[in-house]
Design goal:
This protein is an alpha/beta fold. The chain contains 14 helices and 8 strands. Helix 7 crosses helix 8 and helix 8 runs parallel beside helix 9.
Length: 352
């Protein structure tokens, strides 16, 4: 069974030969472990693709998000957004380009990729060319709210939802066209089968579910419609149903299960009431914090307890979800190698 078949079976609620291992972000680890700089990662698509391919093959990854780094997603300096290149860290957005409604008139949706987004698209194409027939590869198409946050600034965009809804709607209309451009470019150039729509800033502490449903979801749905045929799932919109507090609570549990927040087995069980994330199997997540602070035995013990309960009590064959394989030093990277190997060994030996 190929890794892609394994993931697809688990998505459909069927029994795979082995539980799939899914990684969302591994950029700092892959740079440290394979010895490339952050600058090479974000400017050299061949280097970026090479470390992704090696990482997936070396650690038995079935599903990976390719080239995860905010600056690559299409709203980098090429769009006028200000980014800070801090030593030892991936660049972060520090200032948007839109200070007033008049500034919207100067922005145009690009006709072809340039700058960091060009690196992103080419890296995805290369990884997909090498592994797309066997592995379940995903990549971010950032949604219109995320585009708006980068162009306007996160805090100001959040203020606009309440204090300046007319400007917010105009910005979201432009950002919808921009998001569609990003999705079509990724789809047409890379040949990727499983792009996802990602609204990066839909953190529960930032956006209330009813605000999402009223002011953001209609634009996300429009992007998905215009990127059809074929699904571009809004995988990380853990927002439940509009006006339904119970479904929103269950969605929050699914968010915890996916990202490993709190490493709570009870939260994972509660999350089963909400189905699964769009485009992914039901997850047992181990957070980046736990990956770094726990030893391998504790990680494997947690995975076994959670997976045993899901299979025996719920009849669910979950994925092992590693949302943030990140390290901040060569020493931590070496420790992460041992932990990833332990997770892969546990998965390979786990009888289902």
């Amino acid at each position: 069974m190929t890794p892609s078949q394994r993931v697809s079976l688990a998505i459909n609620g069927e029994k795979p030969d082995k539980l799939p291992i899914i990684v969302i972000n591994s950029n700092t680890f892959t740079c440290l472990h394979y010895g490339i700089s952050i600058e090479e990662y974000i400017t050299n698509p061949y280097k970026c693709a090479e470390v992704h391919i090696r990482f997936i093959q070396d650690f038995g990854i079935d599903c990976a998000m390719v080239a995860a780094a905010y600056i690559l997603y299409g709203t980098g300096p090429e769009m006028g957004v200000h980014w800070e290149h801090a030593d030892g860290n991936f660049p972060g957005s520090v200032k948007g380009v839109l200070e007033s409604e008049e500034d919207l008139s100067i922005l145009k949706v690009p006709s072809k990729p340039s700058g960091y987004f060009k690196t992103y698209v080419e890296a995805i194409r290369l990884v997909n060319q090498a592994l797309g027939d066997t592995h379940y590869l995903t990549a971010n198409v950032i949604g219109p709210f995320t585009v708006a946050c980068f162009l306007r600034g996160i805090e100001q965009t959040l203020v606009d939802t309440m204090m300046n809804p007319d400007l917010f709607d105009k910005l979201m209309t432009f950002s919808t066209d921009f998001s569609v451009y990003l999705g079509k470019t990724i789809r047409d150039i890379t040949g990727l089968s499983h792009p996802i729509l990602n609204e990066i800033f839909l953190a529960p502490e930032m956006i209330r579910p009813d605000v999402y449903h009223a002011q953001i979801a209609p634009y996300d749905i429009d992007v998905q419609r215009r990127l059809g045929p074929g699904p571009v799932p809004n995988s990380f919109a853990f927002m439940g149903k509009a006006g339904d507090r119970h479904s929103q609570k269950i969605a929050a549990s699914l968010n915890q299960a996916f990202f490993g927040v709190g490493e709570s087995i009870e939260a994972i069980k509660d999350a089963t009431q909400g189905g699964r994330p769009a485009g992914y199997p039901f997850p047992v997540g181990v957070s980046g914090r736990a990956l770094n602070s726990w030893d391998a035995d504790k990680i494997v013990s947690f995975l076994k307890e959670a997976i045993d309960s899901l299979i025996s009590e719920k009849g669910i064959y979950p994925s092992i979800n590693l949302p943030s394989v990140q390290t901040d030093s060569p020493k931590k990277a070496r420790e992460m190698v041992d932990k990833l190997n332990a997770i892969n060994k546990f998965r390979n030996n786990y009888a289902i």
